[in-house]
Specification:
Blueprint (H helix, E strand, L loop, with lengths): L12 H5 L7 H11 L5 E2 L14 H11 L9 H4 L2 H13 L14 H15 L8 E4 L1 H13 L5 E7 L3 H9 L3 E6 L10 H13 L3 E8 L11 H14 L2 E5 L16 H8 L3 H4 L2 E6 L13 E6 L3 H12 L6 H11 L9 H27 L4 E2 L8 E2 L2 E2 L3 H9 L4 H13 L1 E2 L1 E2 L12 E4 L7 H19 L9
Parallel strand pairs: 1-12, 3-4, 3-5, 5-6, 6-7
Antiparallel strand pairs: 2-8, 7-8, 9-11, 10-14, 13-14
Helix pairs in contact: 2-17, 3-5, 3-14, 6-14, 7-8, 7-13, 10-11, 15-18, 16-17
Length: about 475
């Protein structure tokens, strides 16, 4: 029998190799259980609104008016919408060539790119060029556009932190490149060691791989650490010495739950270093409305900013972007409001600040509740979530549990997470989906369940975990150290 183009055996092998654990086996099983009527708590993906977070009022008002511009002609519109939301909606509609139903420039609306550039300048203290900012359908689309441009074949390598967000491993596989891991050190609060980076590059080159770029995720996903200014300087000097493009995944820059290490952008540190380094290191930075305290994941608004990228290369990246014709326009408007929120003199300012502080304050509390909860469990150790929206506890699985997993044909942490799901309805992601050292096991969960539900969720986890350990430990007191 002749094979057809979409028969499994004839598919692109790069597609088959690509894995995305966040929506993998655990998620699919959780979805099955939900369809059977079981209550599922989806903590597998950073999706704030799906776990009950309410949207911020002002951006929704602005986009609602842009989506239904006929409301602006209604005499009673001012009774329902504040004047600053009406003015902002009129401004954004004036930037389009036919409202939200029309394509924009493939790079995004120029007026919103200008707003992004002004935001970056306020944040970093250095001018930003709107012509080097492309708006994208979420940060993920921007990451994929850049990786597709960099990767020429299997001998091209991308340095990626392990544990890593599986977008990177999946996209690198999809584009036919090679992932070059550099391991974060759990005992040093997921710190980054430059010597480890050098070793990773050396080993890759010995295998004939040309290392072309390095990814940093700051604050970290799934590990939640925040990089210090000193660490960022080391990374930038390393990239300069090794001629690597630095890809700065900074989508969690608003999610910081401690005061010792506030977020600082790679671009600011680079500019502060001055010439020649500030003129030499090629940097692409990413941000999105999906994360932060906005949580507008479904809107798919994001941007990438290019620093020290040659003009001819910028033109090629434009070509890649233009294949998709246009980033979605409502997402662009959400992004515009995020980077240019209400100001102190605006009518909506007080409500916007009140809502924002409430979300961030609650996330900080939830980060503590979850970390403390995990650390109260047998054979579980967890670093504090300094930033982002995840906990990544290490589960010290007894040998009997590892053997039981092998007998069941499962990776040990997948085995544990499936048992957790069946017993409690808590849907997590096994650490093996993010990468981890041999013989070490983790799970990743978001800190996003409602604050009032968090103690109950952690009590449910503790009950399951302690029963699991009781079942599989050969003796009491299995070491947590």
């Amino acid at each position: 029998m002749s094979t057809k183009g979409l028969d499994y055996e004839t598919l692109n092998e790069n597609v088959k190799k690509a894995q995305y654990a966040v929506r993998g086996e655990l998620y699919l099983r959780a979805s099955e259980l939900q369809m059977q009527g079981k209550k599922i708590i989806f903590t597998n993906v950073g999706n704030p609104h799906a776990l009950g977070q309410k949207p911020l009022t002002f951006p929704r008002q602005v986009v609602a008016l842009c989506q239904a511009p006929f409301l602006l002609d209604d005499p009673s519109v001012a009774l329902v919408f504040p004047a600053d939301a009406i003015a902002r909606a009129k401004y954004y509609l004036s930037l389009t060539s036919g409202g939200l139903g029309a394509y924009s420039d493939s790079r995004g609306l120029p007026g919103i790119r200008k707003e992004v550039a002004e935001f970056i300048e306020r944040r970093d203290g250095y001018p930003s060029d709107p012509e080097l900012i492309y708006l994208t359908d979420g940060a993920s689309k921007g990451v994929m556009q850049i990786l597709q441009t960099i990767i020429r074949g299997q001998s091209d390598g991308i340095l990626v932190p392990v544990p890593q967000y599986p977008l990177y491993s999946a996209a690198i596989s999809l584009f036919g490149g090679s992932l070059v891991p550099y391991y974060l050190e759990e005992t040093a609060n997921w710190g980054l060691d430059i010597q480890n980076l050098r070793q990773s590059v050396g080993e890759a080159r010995a295998r004939g791989i040309t290392v072309r770029a390095m990814v940093i995720i700051n604050p970290g996903n799934p590990t939640g650490q925040c990089l210090s200014e000193a660490n960022l300087k080391e990374i930038l000097l390393f990239c300069n010495q090794e001629n690597l493009v630095l890809l700065g995944d900074e989508v969690y820059q608003q999610n910081v739950y401690q005061d010792e290490r506030p977020f600082i952008s790679a671009r600011k540190v680079l500019m502060d270093m001055g010439p020649p380094v500030s003129k030499q290191v090629q940097l692409v930075s990413f941000h999105t409305v999906s994360k932060g305290y906005w949580g507008e994941c479904g809107q798919r608004g994001g941007y990438l900013e290019m620093t020290n990228i040659p003009p001819q290369t910028v033109d090629e990246i434009y070509k890649v972007a233009s294949i998709s014709l246009s980033p979605n326009v409502p997402g662009q408007i959400f992004l515009g409001v995020m980077v240019n929120p209400p100001k102190p003199a605006d009518i909506s300012y007080d409500q916007f600040i009140r809502e924002s502080k409430a979300i961030l304050g609650s996330l900080r509390k939830r980060a503590h509740i979850m970390t403390d909860g995990f650390n109260s469990c047998r054979n579980v150790v967890c670093n504090f979530t300094e930033g982002a929206m995840y906990s990544f506890p290490q589960i010290r699985l007894p040998p009997k549990a590892v053997e039981a997993a092998k007998t069941a044909g499962k990776v040990p942490d997948v085995f544990y997470c499936l048992k957790l799901l069946e017993a409690t309805g808590i849907s997590t992601v096994p650490g093996s989906g993010f990468g981890q050292k041999e013989g070490v096991f983790h799970l990743r969960t978001t800190i996003l369940p409602a604050e009032e539900e968090m103690p109950g969720i952690m009590a449910s986890f503790k009950k399951f975990n302690d029963q699991f350990m009781e079942q599989y430990e050969e003796y009491r007191g299995y070491s947590r150290l």
